[in-house]
Design goal:
single chain; about 325 residues; alpha/beta; 2 domains; eight-stranded mixed beta sheet; two-stranded antiparallel ribbon; globular
């Protein structure tokens, strides 16, 4: 199949390598022509996926029309807070009948919309698939065995993505019809990963992180069910699976942000030091906090992460406030 990756970030690049291995005709589109030319010359994404060669069979372009119009599948790999602008670039082009596969994991600030809702607002009714699960780009790029879920309300689209993306050596894809649950699991795990990083930065132990992850799943399920997700999704790959890997991995950018916070650094300094690398959970913490408040769902961990990021709350006080909440049954 002809498949285009919309964005030249690390995860999109790893998926491009996978799809190239699977024998597809793959194009990566990037918004910055100078960097696309650099990638063409070096055959490597030195900013976002260092050390992995890009085969010459992968096309690199800064021409959005070239990337979109001939593709059968469009892989949306832009970070969630910039997804709207990418979709606006696609809107004037011929995208009829194409399958859209979303890799971004977040909730838009302001609108509080998931990616599927933004896509519908801009492009109308499309064949939309959310690809979510425990899948760090660095490991997929190195062909380390990985499993994910392709969630779509269109069963044929989900199965087409399952077939196109599955690699029997290292990438297994399951299907689901729960788009809401998959999107929320992928978005909120980044917020909980910031909290997990705070625990690491403070030098706390396994007990603390296990408690955080367990209560994080409970919080995710509570909010997700209220928004229309299915309970089984939150105990699956795009729920607890993605949460575990993001809370524990040294690859996790969100966990890194939390770790630096736990060591006493300010958010502005952390973001500056990360340069162009995006930690989705920073913005999603704000969106999730506002969304939970709007629909009246109790999300104590999300609230504390929000307070640490946006109200300059001392993370140690946040931990103390979580530990001293009124006692209740599990």
């Amino acid at each position: 199949m002809k498949i285009s990756i919309i964005s030249d970030g690390g995860w999109g690049t790893a998926i491009a390598l996978l799809l190239n291995d699977n024998g597809h005709d793959v194009t990566i589109w990037g918004a910055f022509p100078d960097y696309i030319e650099e990638m063409k010359e070096k055959r490597e994404n030195t900013r976002f996926l260092k050390g992995i060669t890009l085969p010459k069979s992968i096309t690199l372009t800064a021409d959005i029309k070239e990337a979109v119009e001939d593709a059968e599948i469009l892989v949306l790999a832009t970070p969630s807070q910039y997804m709207r602008s990418s979709l606006e670039l696609i809107k004037p082009l011929n995208y009829s009948g194409k399958i859209f596969v979303d890799l971004a994991k977040g909730i838009e600030v302001g609108s509080l919309k998931r990616i599927s809702e933004i896509a519908e607002e801009i492009l109308g009714e499309i064949k939309y698939v959310c690809l979510s699960g425990p899948s760090h780009a660095e490991e997929v790029g190195k062909k380390i065995p990985t499993t994910v879920t392709a969630a779509s309300e269109n069963e044929n689209a989900a199965q087409a993505v399952q077939k196109a993306f599955t690699n029997q050596s290292y990438f297994r894809v399951y299907t689901s019809d729960d788009v809401i649950g998959a999107e929320l699991g992928g978005a909120l795990k980044n917020v909980f990963a910031i909290a997990a990083g705070v625990i690491d930065g403070m030098g706390f132990g396994d007990n603390t992180k296990a408690a955080l992850m367990t209560r994080g799943v409970a919080e995710l399920s509570r909010l997700g069910l209220a928004l229309g997700g299915k309970e089984s999704t939150f105990s699956g790959l795009s729920g607890i699976g993605d949460l575990i890997v993001t809370c524990t991995s040294q690859h996790s950018r969100n966990r890194h942000v939390g770790e630096e916070l736990g060591k006493g650094k300010k958010l502005e300094t952390i973001i500056e030091e990360m340069q162009m690398v995006v930690a989705e959970g920073v913005k999603t913490a704000k969106s999730a906090h506002e969304l939970a408040k709007k629909i009246g769902i109790d999300t104590p961990i999300v609230n504390e992460v929000y307070a640490c990021l946006y109200e300059d709350k001392d993370p140690r006080q946040g931990i103390k406030d979580l530990m001293t909440r009124p006692l209740k049954a599990e």
